[in-house]
Structures are given as structure tokens and as C-alpha cells.
Amino acid sequence: MIELTGWEPLGISVDWAAIEGELGVPLPADYKELYEIFGGGVFSDSVYFLGRDESPAFDFLAQWRVDLSVDQDSKLGSVSAVEPYAIYAPGGKGLVEWGSTEWADEYFWLIDAERPSDYPILARSNDIGAWHRYDMYTSEFLYRVLDDADFQPFGIAQYDLGTTFQPGSGDPSDSQPL
Asked: How do 165-167 and 41-43 pair as beta strands?
């Protein structure tokens, strides 16, 4: 990803133990490395990468808290926005969003507290709606989205957007997530 984007690693320090303590599971090691290098922000002006930022715009933990509260809100009935799945609740099994696109594609990990080292990626495209499962690392999935035109329906290389990265500005009005 560093070579692809020409990015200079930031070396962000994160208290992963506190974050993983709240979630009740460890996060994928390659995701943590990606975040420490890039922080939260936007790849190729269209792929939003959530991290652990002070601003809520690119903060995956804030996004997860919102998703979980909506998913568990009994006033909304028993339908989940991520059917046939649910948003991950500590100790259970469900989805945690870590990325999305300006076209409303969404990228999640399927987390199972009983299998804390297994992080399949579930993604869906707004145009298609069906879930796609990928048994690969977060960094591999993101790389293929950005650089593999044949990685359909999620590859964006055919749009020739370049492979840039723009850190989150901290201004929620400048962002799509949440």
C-alpha cells in the first residue's frame, strides 16, 4: 500500500488494548499496521478508510457504536441494516465496518468472539446489494480495490482515479462515513 500510494508512513501511536478491550476481541494485525501508517482518510478520492481518529468522521469505533445502537434499537423492530447479519456486539458474532466508498459500497469484518483470529471481509455494493465474502487480509482487499480493475464489483482501477491518500480532515462535513 505504501508503494502503491507513495505515502510516507505516519507512525501513529494507538492504544489498541483499550480499543480491543471495548470490542472484546483483537483487531486484525494488518489493519492496525495500515492505520498506524495512514490514519483514517480517503484513498483515490473515493474509498473511505476508517481508523481510530479524534474526529468522528473517520473513526471506526464511533461508527461501530452508532451502528450497534441503531441495530439494537427495539423501536426500529427486528430488522437489521446488515441483514442477514447483525452488527457485532461484544462476545457475539457480527459485522464491524472499516471502510466504504462514495458509491455506497461497504466493507466489514465478520467478527466472531469465539474465533478471534478469523476476520473474513464481507462487502456489498449499493448497486448489487448482495454480500460478497473474501477470506483475505484487510490490506490485500484494499489493495485489490484500488489496483485491480478485475476485482469486481469493488475494483476501482478501471476509473483511473490514481492511487492517492488524503488523511481525514477532522471536519465531519467533509466526509461521507457516519
From this structure: antiparallel
Looking at per-residue pLDDT, the higher value among 173 and 59 belongs to 59
Dihedral, CA atoms, 116, 67, 170, 161, nearest 10 degrees? 80
Q: Is 38 left (phi over 0), alpha (psi -120 to 50) or beta?
A: alpha
CATH fold for domain 2-174: SMI1/KNR4-like (3.40.1580)
pLDDT in tens, 6-37: 888 888 888 999 999 999 999 999 999 999 99
Q: Write the secondary structure of the chain as one string of H (helix), E (strand) and C (coil).
A: CHHHHCCCCCCCCCCHHHHHHHHCCCCCHHHHHHHHHHCCEEECCCEEECECCCCHHHEHHHHHHHHHHHHCCHHHCCCCCCCCCCECCCCCEEEEEEEEECCCCEEEEEEECCCCCCCCEEEECCCCCCEEEECCCHHHHHHHHHHCCCCCCCCCHHHCCCCCEEECCCCHHHCCCC
**Identity of the amino acid at 117:** S
Other beta carbons within 10 Å of 52 = 21
Residue 175 has pLDDT above 50, yes or no: no
Res 176 pLDDT > 80: no
pTM over 0.70: yes
